[in-house]
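Let us work through a complete example step by step.
Step 1: write down the sequence.
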Amino acid sequence: MSEDSDNGEGMTATPPQAGGTSRRAFVLGGAAIGAAGVIGGRRGPDVTAQQRRRAGATARPAAKVGSKAEVGATVSAGNPGGSTRLEAAQIFDTNMGGRKMAMAVERVYWGPGKWQTGPNTTQEVATLNGAGIAIVGSFTPSQTLTNAELTNLKNSLAQLKSQNAIVDAICLTHEPNYQKFPSAQAYQKYINFYGPAVVEAGYALAYIPVVLTTAANDVAAFYPTGTLNGQPLVTRMYGDFYCSTQYTSGVRLDGFFNVAVAHNTPRVGIGEFGRTDSALHPPTDQQFRSYTQYLTQEWQAWNAAGHDSAVIMYFTNGAANNPTPDNYLALEALWDALSIDHT
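Step 2: predict the structure and record it as tokens.
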């Protein structure tokens, strides 16, 4: 699928078109999120949250409880309001009853050929940083593994460091398991080539797959297993998982968590969660509330089993994902249960 374009500097938000525009064709920070279309899945015979909780309680000391992380939200100018990204973040958090969510941590995306080097990109990161907003960044180096692209990545990471950007983690091509690489082996090779630059720059390297099926066999196959100096390159794992069409189609996170356990991933969170990945399939308020309750239970079980959370981030990109008043109430309950920041 083709990638949307921006102004050439790499971080301009392009609002979705009315009607059937998919969440995966939307651009935030100059990167196309992915390919358009409805995705679904089937429920597989995997381990449930309750079974994980029991197993964790058996395998670990009762006193060991995993740590929470911040619950954030990725916004853009006009979504859910305002004329700038910062204004949108302030509006989102006001709608959250003053809870610090969009003003806590957001995703930032750089598409193919886009780097943290132009004046527009450096200014947007500076604005977020000045407001104390942390980022989980996604760079998209070329799949043609060249030293020139590696240098571009290193220069961008150095620029982030020179700006004192608040970086929670860096991902190299998010949702690699969704029609972006010819094979899981190609992605493994890709991370082995570019990944050490992220770790050597002092940043955590994140793996961000989209959860398409309950079994999540593709998530397991794409998990980067490379090491640097004997240590795993990947230390964060985030799932992209939407209410509709994934949750409402019966997809669950059992396999996703099993992958994290299999690799002993230090921290696990959500890169994108929201109402829908396609404007054609908005959920009802009841479906969204069930979905947020499910996410809450899953991460509470994850922590109860002694595992640590990574950041959990809502994604909004226009009418399809701008929360309804009832959605905000459901998000408040999720934030109250999962966020490390209760100030």
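Step 3: interpret the result. Residues 227 and 233 are 5 Å apart (CA to CA).
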